[in-house]
């Protein structure tokens, strides 16, 4: 069973005309899985736009109903038979033909990806595996390869302590021209990695179809807590540059030999050159890196009469997409495994609200210098807040995020004496004087708020004239209290109006508290 992101992403890439292999590499799925997803997409007949609007779990259940989760017990093919046929003298048979032959004889047998996996295991167990090199015709402007230089030289001097610190050198190159970009960072953490990607794209002045990072912990991880952040980080990067992040297969460093070779090249021609000087800031160090890399890019290839820069201008750049408008803003990402019961997520000493229905669910907080964006586990935006730097208030709450009962109590607790005086003045002068005396009768005005609210809510159910008369009686006997008002209503036998009858108060007040949010 595949998750929502894999299902929607695979369909979108195929609809955009991406090759099957690209989709399989991007989402780490086999051709059988991809074919199954696309066949069920066409069978369902639901447009991709409608699928995006559906709940993720509903999409997953639509493509993988429970009845389809059971696997049949299928015996393994006779791999020795197929191995002998492939390696027979003069044979032109390959594994693809063997799978087609197997499926013809066993229609309910293993799909291609499973067949290939078990066949490779058979070879590794019985013949020690096989190592072959593949000749690759690279497509101009298609891929930008990304990696960190393995050597971490001590180049930066602390002016206060004299300590020499290590630096980490970020490097990218293109598939055809091999044009190099390099930059020094204090570490290899995610913010530096993303910033390096953005700077590299600006350096090239155009965007490739694919970004191919190494399987670094920065880029690809199996740690469940971090996977949520990394997935959303690269999704944001993809959306902004309209590209595809396509890591090579796990534990396959030769999946990107172009950048591996240039990492070794930079260790010799860049790092060795940098060690000849002393640097006191990253600005000085990166200025020197820029000069050295510019020389390397303009140096002619061995045995050729053109350089990396020449090849880039002639082959890669014309095939790359133009830069999007604006600059990519790197965010600080925070994964939340469960939204707390108070529906606020903490960041930098402040607490930002989300809709209360997200309590207990995973979420992703993205922080920029001016804004807080909160997304669900599928990287869909839930809400935004203006980032707060003030010491108070610590809780940044949007009223629409609160459950009805919380919002009602917030409204009640936000009232002051002037609020009740304005409310009473809408009924008449006697009621206005009654409420004013009641507010002044306590040592602290706040202690009278409940009594004021009780009287004014009582008034909403009786005629305005009767309310004024009862208020005058209370003033005459100098007993401006809720209990006296209630007893006077009973003594004068004042009849209540039908519920929700128009009239004793302005429309915005003429609602019962218990019905306030129905």
From TrEMBL:
Q: Where is the composition biased (Basic and acidic residues)?
A: 509-518
Q: Which InterPro entries match?
A: Integrase_cat-core, IstA-like_C
**Domain of life where this protein originates:** Bacteria
Enumerate the spans annotated as Integrase catalytic domain: 136-319
Which stretches of sequence are listed as region Disordered?
496-518
* Full protein name: Transposase
Q: Which organism is it from?
A: Hominisplanchenecus faecis
